[in-house]
Amino acid sequence: MQSFGCRATQADGAALDRQLAAQGLNPANSALEADLVVLNTCTVTAAADQDARASIRRIHRENPDAKIMVTGCYAQRAPQEIAALPGVTWVVGNSHKHRVAEIAAQAQFRNQYPSEEYAAAQGEVQPVSQQNFVSLETVSLSAPAITLVGDIFAHTELIAAPVFAGDTIGEKTRPNLKVQDGCDNRCSFCIIPSVRSQSRSMALERVIEEANALVAAGYREIVLSGINLGRWGRDFQPQQRFEQLVRALLEHTDIEKIRISSVEPMDWTDELIALVAGSPRIAKHAHVPLQSGSDCILRRMHRKYRPWHYAEKIRKIHEAMPDAAIGADVMVGFPGESDDLFEESRSFIEHLPFTYLHVFTYSSRPGTPSAAMPDQVPVHVARERNRVLRELVAEKNRAFRQSFVGQSLEVITLQAGGDGWTEALSDNYLQVKIAGQHDPNMMMRVGIADLEEDGVLGIVQQ
Questions:
Q1: Staple partner for 325: which of 149, 254, 410, 429, CB 3.0–4.6 Å?
Q2: In contact, 305 and 281? CB cutoff 8 Å
Q3: How far is C-alpha 299 from the geometric centre of its chain's CA atoms?
Q4: How many Cβ atoms sit within 10 Å of the Cβ of residue 378?
Q5: Which whole-number Å values give the CA distances from 64 to 32, 234, 255, 428, 451, in the listed order?
Q6: Which domains are seen in the chain, by residue range?
Q7: Which among 417, 438, 172, 222 is positioned nearest to 457, based on CA atoms?
Q8: What is the pTM (predicted TM-score) of this model?
Q9: pLDDT tens string for the chain (462 positions)?
């Protein structure tokens, strides 16, 4: 089982691992030793598609006897493209991802599908059936791949399990807990709603149950994640708010630290900001997607806020938590982004208290409105803009780190490194090194002594 892409995809993969184990399937040590390889794909960029295709080709080349099952977002978006690759035996879209373990366990299929059940299916769909089975051993690797891809907007399942960010020594820390999937926004560049369906939330009771199970297993910090996390609870009747989920975790679990992953600017309400700022059990870290600091580009992107709205949210977060890490996703090279509009975005970013950015070069996605827009930006221009923003934020990041030299920070240990130090992550999202060898998953307060020359990791002493 291999997963590509975002935290949500990793959480889907963890759930599939759990389901495959429940079916009695044992994981292989590597794809080279596996009889069946499941690839859980991403399709947010062309590079993500390319990575998946490269993995499929490599697995087939190195282990030609393995059956390959491809699922996830790329499988949902372009099943026929994947089915044509040598070595692919099954393509299972997100619409049927919840049946991957059943398919793998049974490894039995029939050749026809009931048209009334799959009338809205994309391409030629061959679903699992309870009759006319064909055993795994008799599936021909040279035959066309069997596809199981249906209407994603009829999909109501939400599968997820904690995903563990860990180390190289066998211990695991900071599990990601996916509590929401799908998106109701229609950003003009984004393919995700078309491959993950509408927003849907994990029931509050189940979130509490999963969090308490992690506490019982000894974990100290959890990371809440989702495709559009701030929309958690809006699909319930009556509606609930993301702040209610966070408050319930504080009230009904003993988790020591809750870290909130990406939340859209319109969902950073005054109540949520006050809750994060006021609780020592919530990490002082806000990731607020921006995409562009140009009002014109935001409108072309169909984003639901204007630059001044965004700036107001960031300033409120910074005023409430001056030491918080504040990050954003930013896209460069969107169609129509002229030199002047890019400079507008760069200047906007320069004047806000960001401590890090995730900078992406625009990647045209087939089927999205932006793919057909005029004034596509040349790749070499977009890449140069990417470099400019990365250099800008590197300066901001170093200044942020430097401001903590001589201070103390609360950290959670991640893994032991060489030369007598241990890697850790601070409450406000700083990677640090602690003098001495320490076990993972330990909470401690350390004093910052210095920065490494490249400014990437802080050298700390107890």
A1: 429
A2: no
A3: 25
A4: 9
A5: 9, 46, 45, 46, 48
A6: 2-154 (3.40.50), 162-283 (3.30.750.210), 318-403 (3.30.750.200), 408-461 (2.40.50.140)
A7: 417
A8: 0.85
A9: 888 888 788 888 888 888 888 888 888 889 888 889 999 999 999 999 999 999 999 999 999 999 999 999 999 999 999 999 999 999 999 888 888 888 888 763 333 333 333 333 333 344 433 322 333 343 344 456 888 888 877 766 666 555 454 433 234 678 889 999 999 999 999 998 888 889 999 999 999 999 999 999 899 999 999 999 999 999 999 999 999 999 999 999 999 999 999 999 999 999 999 999 999 999 999 999 999 999 999 999 999 999 999 999 999 999 999 999 999 999 999 999 999 999 999 999 999 999 999 999 999 998 899 999 999 999 999 999 999 999 999 999 999 999 999 999 999 999 877 678 888 999 999 989 888 888 899 999 999 988 876 554 566 665
Instruction: List the structure tokens of 24.
Output: 């009695």
